Amino acid sequence: MNYSLSKTDMKKEEDKGVLVTAWRRLFPLLAEEGRVVTIALIAILVSSVATLVVPILIARIVDVYLITKDFHGVLVYSAWLFGIFMVGLTASYLQIRTMGGVGRRLLFNLRNKIFTKLQELPVGFFNQNKAGDLISRINNDTDKLNQFFAQALMQFISNVVLIAGTAVFLLAINFELGAIALVPAVLALVATQLLSPWVKRTSLKSLQTLGGMSAEIQESINNFKVIVAFNRLDYFRDKFKESNEANYVASVAAGVASNIFNPIYVLASALAQLAVLALGIYLIAQGHFLIGLLIGYFLYVNNFYTPLRQLASVWPSWQLALAGLDRISEVLALESDLQVMPADTGEAVTVSMAPNAVLEFKEVAFHYQENKDVLRNINFTLERGKTYALVGPTGGGKTTTASLMARLYDPTAGAIYLEGKDIRFYDPAERSKKIGFILQEPFLFTGTVRENILYGNEEHQGYTDQQLMEVLEKAHLTKLLSRFSEGLDTVVASSGDAISLGQKQLIAFIRAALRSPDILILDEATANIDTVTEQLLDEILNELPKSTTKVIIAHRLNTIENADTIFFVNGGEVTHAGSMQQAVDMLLHGKRSS
Amino acid sequence: MKDPVSQAKAPGLFGLLKKYSLLIGLLIVLTIVANALSLSVPSIISNGIDTYTNGHFLIGRLIVEFSIIAVLIFVFTYLQNIVQVYASERVARDMRNDISAKISVQPYAYIESVTPAKILTNLTSDVDAVKTFVSTAVASLISSVFLLVGTAILLLVANWRLGLVVLAVVPVIGIMFFLILKQVRKLFVKSQEAIDWLNKVISESILGAALIRLLNSRDTESKKFLDANTEAKRISLEILRLFASLIPVITFMTNLATLAIVVLGGRYVITGTMSLGNFTAFNSYLAILIFPIMIIGFMSNVIAQAQASYGRILRVLDAPVEKKTGGLKAVLRGDIEVKNVTVNFGQKDALKNVSLSVAAGSRTAIIGPTAAGKTQLLYLLTGLLAPTSGEIDFDGKDINEYDKSSIHSQVGFVFQDSVMFNLTLRENIAFSNTVKDSSIEKAIETAELRDFVDTLPQKLDTIVSERGTSLSGGQKQRIMLARALALDPKVLLLDDFTARVDANTEKKILANVARNYPGLTLISVTQKISSVEHYDKIVLLMEGEVLAEGTHDELMHSSPEYVQIYQSQRSINQYEMDPHA
């Protein structure tokens, strides 16, 4: 049950060489688009060749027709050129459309895959990875992938083809001249390799200081009221100044480092032209080369160095994108360990339960971390229509026990039986119909109250407002609705203080009650609701069908006084508390950790 | 025109650069030198070819000249890049400092109305957009204009007729770029909206993970996501369609210019009015010519974005500062008077004509259902919120006559939600400049935190971060209390302090407060009558109005609503008032 994602962003992978990693990650994705990729590659080849033959034709024109002053020949060749330009136009249009389309579809599919995976993973994954980190990780990384697939991938492939094609032409036209033209490029690549660690180090530093500064900003801005009320504005201004300064120093250092590449490739390009000029003229003097060809040769040198320079300048951002792809792959590689068990395995699927029993814990143990048992050998049975209260100090295991009932986790040992069948063998749809759970931290989706109370509720989804009101009335829920200024149409947001915690809990309550589950679990679900409203909730709970089993976790004792059975949860054990009085004694005299 | 904000905006982005004129001047000079050097390369090559065909070719001199220029190009390009990084980072740093300085003199209400999320955007992505403008747009624009003009002159000097023909493609490409980018920009806005939508779905699916699994509503979520994702794909394909037509057409236009050079230039070479070297140079210059047009086109995007961002930043920087409150610095006795105060948010009144008086040294409780306006009332008393109408007096003087910090340092506020900073426990508690060690100790004792602090490995110097550390709700709440008590406040405001602290501890803490802080004026917002029954005054607040006030006994006789609340809590009294029952 280890879902923690590595914190060592882009470290190990890069040692293997970015290109290898890129290829390993991208190839399987590209293979899915086989036919279109083939068309795109053909288009790239055609457009590259169209670009590459132009200098040769111009060289021919110079060497053959300008020297011999044959203008007709110039015109004939120009017509050829025009034709090639038209082919180039078509091919490059096709290339951009197809490759761009491939990139965008890949991104689309990859995003869907990530989301599907996120939906498959169990709650444990979200608890082990902090929500804030996870959101920024997924959003940032998909954003980087967006840039990569929408722009960089196409540029990368066509540039690589062009560079390779040009190199072939350079060497084929004249091997010596070609070789000398490529030497500066090799030197530049070597320099890049040598300088990379420096660039990486400074970039990493600057990313860290940037992260530090962002965290600083976020913390102070979000908690501004505390800072104002406690007169600490100056303190935070100074702290911000400090981290801002640190970020500035690190960013300048990173900028100085990463900007070295552009001048190096400019220099290499100039040196290559110099070498070609010197050697070219020498070869012409020797009679081994033609002046027109030399003119064309310079165009090739440009064709070679310009895309190389472009690659060098966007290389760092690609590395980031690939690192993002790596991190996404890490999420994609995770497997849920909460699979639905198939019916035909040899394990004991069913047990016989007492006629009234609805849920049974059998020798259940649970831990989040190895050697830190939260629950040990728990046995108890819940009966239909009864009300159970779980009490105990904070951190004692109440929420964990409740979570196991709803299969948010699987027990590490033992089993839980719902109506006689191991809960792991239930289809999620069936299970969620039977078990309702009002979470400690209510969550709302941005939208209206209506959307939120009907969330995940197939049965009432298509109801008109009037029909819905009737259903709510029948369940005695309309009084709660009057707590919202616009009733069903009140707009709520998942974040922000627009509605109070108490109101959020009310929505969560209506949402769960409307589904009329067999077992309803309330995990401190009313902590921030005033007592009058809470009494109203009690009445609503009493109006639920007689067969509904209620499991209540609460801090306030009055919420549990009506329970049929009280369990005391602490120190890995769930014990019968007997009477209310006994429970109070255990709470007051037991070890307290809150 | 009267609006000072719009006037300040007029100089815009380039006005921003005035402060850095020395740096920007240096940047301009370096850019021009670096580009002039690059521009000389084709002419050296064409010279070389021409001198060779004319027969007085000196290879040694050529190599020396060329090498020197190559090295100079390297040096100046790098210098230009360095100055550019330096300038842009300085602009960003200064701007962030300006924004943070400005925000720190604004009241809390301002931050709430602007929303923290927007300010975060101002400080991060808006500043980044301006930084990108300085780091890429400034130098690119200078070099592009320089290259464009420079190449045009060189072309015209070499052969003005052919030069004119070649230059004819420039406006055509320019106009195309302008038209298409205008459409693309609109799509970029839409695409950002689609991305925001996607991110929202992802965020909510992560934050609501447990709920989604409990309700087995993965399909619902997947459908939401698919809708957003499909929209994002549709927009990006539309952008692609535009680019797919733009770039090949530009290349094609350039190629047509090449054709013109070959046909016309070829004719001139044949007729002897143009040298072969110039013919070569024309081809090279053409390549140089197209580049700046594209750069200017792309930079227009960067500039538009930076302009919008800078506008947003200026709105923060130029926002009027709250009128300076009075400079009165006095030790508070603690008499508080709320006079006919109304607060509205939008159309809704959070508080309606509320009047209330609290005597120094007394204990007052505010009770009421969810969303009654209790928290807002406390915010008013700390000056976090200003009344829409009405007045708040401390010791008979309007709160506005006081120096803000004088109020803040004497009124301790324990917020309902626990706010922990990523600092040491000591810093989290001694959350003010004026706190003495003895005050911290007293606050820790009073909040019953001593035992907890002793269990920490580094005691008070342990870092507590907002997320992740193993503080329970009750511990956080008590730290918040200690933070307020460490001020040695004259007035203490508690907002639902009892919700997360168990009855036993609560009782102890309140007794500690009474013992260690005699004369303290206490106002407590709470849900539980039992803990405030013996208070000097209880105020019943409902839907923004004071429904009743008085002692517990008085209210039990005069207010049916109060009696109802009391009845609903009786069971609490039985068990929690007296733990030894």
Uncertain spans of chain A: 7-15
In CATH, the topology of the largest domain in chain B is named ABC transporter transmembrane region fold
Question: From the coordinates shown, what is the CATH architecture of the largest domain in chain A?
Answer: 3-Layer(aba) Sandwich
- Total domain count of chain B: 3
Strand order of the largest sheet of chain B: 6-9-10-3-11-12
User: For the report, how would you describe the main beta sheet of chain B?
Assistant: 6 strands, mixed
| Strand runs of chain A, count | 12
Structural class of chain A: alpha/beta
Major interchain interface with per-chain residue totals: A-B, 154 and 156 residues
Q: Rough shape of chain B?
A: elongated
**CATH topology description of the largest domain in chain A:** Rossmann fold
SS-derived structural category of chain B: alpha/beta
Proportion of residues in β-strands of chain A: 5-15%
| Biggest sheet: strand arrangement of chain A | 6-9-10-3-11-12
CATH level 4 superfamily of the largest domain in chain A: P-loop containing nucleotide triphosphate hydrolases
CATH C-level class of the largest domain in chain B is: Mainly Alpha
- How does CATH name the architecture of the largest domain in chain B? Up-down Bundle
Largest sheet of chain A: 6 strands, mixed
Q: How many strands of chain B? A: 12
Quaternary organisation? heterodimer
Polypeptide structure, described:
The complex is a heterodimer of chains A (594) and B (581). Chain A is α/β, with parallel strands linked by helices. Helices cover 62% and strands 11% of the residues of chain A. In chain A, the strands form three sheets. A six-stranded mixed sheet of chain A has the order 6-9-10-3-11-12, with helices on both faces. In chain A, strands 2-1-4-5 form a four-stranded antiparallel sheet, covered by helices on one side. A two-stranded antiparallel ribbon of chain A has the order 7-8. In chain A, a hairpin with a 2-residue loop joins strand 11 and strand 12. About 2% of the residues of chain A have low confidence. Chain B is an alpha/beta fold. Chain B has three domains: 314 residues, Up-down Bundle (ABC transporter transmembrane region fold); 155 residues, P-loop containing nucleotide triphosphate hydrolases (Rossmann fold, 3-Layer(aba) Sandwich), CATH 3.40.50.300; 78 residues, P-loop containing nucleotide triphosphate hydrolases (Rossmann fold, 3-Layer(aba) Sandwich), CATH 3.40.50. Chain B contains 21 helices and twelve strands. The N and C termini of chain B lie far apart (75 Å). At the A-B interface, helix 3, helix 4, helix 5, helix 6 and helix 7 of A face helix 3, helix 4, helix 6, helix 8 and helix 9 of B.
